[in-house]
Design goal:
The complex is a heterodimer. By secondary structure, chain A is mainly alpha-helical. Helices cover 55% and strands 10% of the residues of chain A. Chain A is built from 7 helices and 3 strands. In chain A, helix 1 crosses helix 2 and helix 2 crosses helix 3. Chain A is flat, with a radius of gyration of 28 Å. By secondary structure, chain B is of the alpha+beta class. Chain B has a 4-stranded antiparallel beta sheet with strand order 2-1-8-7, with helices on one face. A 4-stranded antiparallel beta sheet of chain B has the order 3-4-5-6, with no helix packed on it. The longest helix of chain B has 25 residues. In chain B, 30% of the residues are buried. About 10% of the residues of chain B have low confidence. The chains are: A mainly alpha, B alpha+beta. The interface between A and B is medium-sized, with 31 and 38 residues. Strand 1 of chain A pairs antiparallel with strand 6 of chain B, so a sheet runs across the interface.
Chain lengths: 176, 165
């Protein structure tokens, strides 16, 4: 059972060819005697195959830009005629399922999506620089907080007060 | 007479057995040595402000330390409390704003005493503080400045359990 647990942590690396030497040999040896882990490796292989196929499907056709350029005047015309039915402008959205999401996106939309992803990641970045040898966990209940290692023996945890008095704001003690 | 002698023998044998069992348990490898010495946590609450004023000499060292980080010109000691806490015992002090500060020594680690600290409604944290070191928390606004709470635990170095090979 323990061998199974240890091996399962390494199955993905084994499948991806990232294990070498003794570790690879140990996993391979375990797979010969464990149908459960073997089936997991096979499942990993199937997933990889699906991903590879979808990647191929999502590869833009060589003449993609030419096709888009040819359609641009028509789309401009549609935009000018604001009374036109909205449905006429979005034939691509009629595709259903995940395959529609995997279709190549126009550069502008892709750029916007990438910007959105970067923005979301930026929002999710941990706020305070935590000095992890002293501060193990920190929950400032949504407030900004800063951890300052002041000297060898002192650590400052400075939480900003949500309702500071005006004079405190002026004093600079709220500015961090 | 015979019954009384037999009873005494049984009692003596039972007592000896219990003694041997407790000795054997105390010498088990990795058996934790009970630690009864409490942790002493000094909790100093001060008011600080950038308004011109004086630094209370009773907390001059804290004033110098904070002065390196902030524009600090006034520091006044509000209260100094000494908490004597066993592990997992929660000590509390109340700030002038009415909020409670709770401290719970949780575990002795190689990096210091692991403590849970809560400033009511503002902060929950776990810190690892060696004996003689301190954690300073900038807490609620108060008057025209801030309240600052300094926690400084002191304790004896935890005893190592005897290792048998």
């Amino acid at each position: 059972m323990k061998a199974c647990q240890r091996t399962q942590d390494r199955l993905e690396a084994f499948h991806d060819g990232e294990l070498a030497g003794f570790l690879r040999w140990r996993v391979a040896r375990h797979l010969t005697s464990c149908p459960h882990c073997r089936s997991e490796v096979e499942a990993l292989g199937e997933i990889a195959e699906i991903v590879r196929e979808e990647e191929l499907a999502a590869t833009p056709a060589p003449d993609l830009w030419a096709a888009i350029a040819a359609r641009l005047p028509a789309i401009d015309g549609e935009l000018d005629r604001r009374a036109a039915p909205a449905a006429a402008l979005r034939p691509a959205r009629e595709r259903k399922g995940w395959a529609a999401l995997l279709r190549p996106l126009p550069i502008g939309v892709g750029g916007l999506a990438a910007a959105a992803v970067v923005f979301v990641l930026w929002l999710r970045l941990p706020g305070p620089p935590v000095r992890d040898d002293v501060v193990e966990e920190l929950d400032a209940m949504g407030r900004p907080v800063v951890v300052l290692p002041s000297d060898d023996k002192s650590t400052i945890i400075w939480v900003l007060d949500p309702k500071p008095v005006e004079s405190a704001k002026e004093s600079g003690l709220e500015v961090l | 007479m015979k019954f009384s002698r037999a009873l005494r023998s049984i009692t003596a044998l039972g007592g000896a057995g219990l003694l041997l069992a407790s000795l054997a348990r105390a010498q088990e490898p990795g058996a934790a040595v009970p630690r009864t010495a409490p942790v002493h946590v000094e909790v100093l609450t001060v008011y600080v402000s950038a308004r011109p004023g004086t630094i209370d000499p009773a907390a001059a060292e804290l004033g110098r330390m904070l002065g390196r980080e902030f524009n600090l010109q006034t520091l006044r000691v509000i209260q100094l409390q000494q908490l004597l806490l066993a592990l997992h015992q929660i000590g509390q002090i109340q700030l002038p704003t009415g909020h409670w500060v709770s401290v719970e020594p949780e575990e002795f680690t190689p990096g210091g005493l692991r403590m849970g600290v809560e400033v009511q409604g503002m902060l929950r944290t776990h810190v690892k503080v060696p004996s003689g070191n301190q954690v300073v928390i900038g807490a609620y606004s108060y008057e025209d400045g801030r309240l600052v709470v300094r926690l400084a635990p002191t304790y004896e170095a935890p005893m190592e359990a005897p290792q048998r090979r």
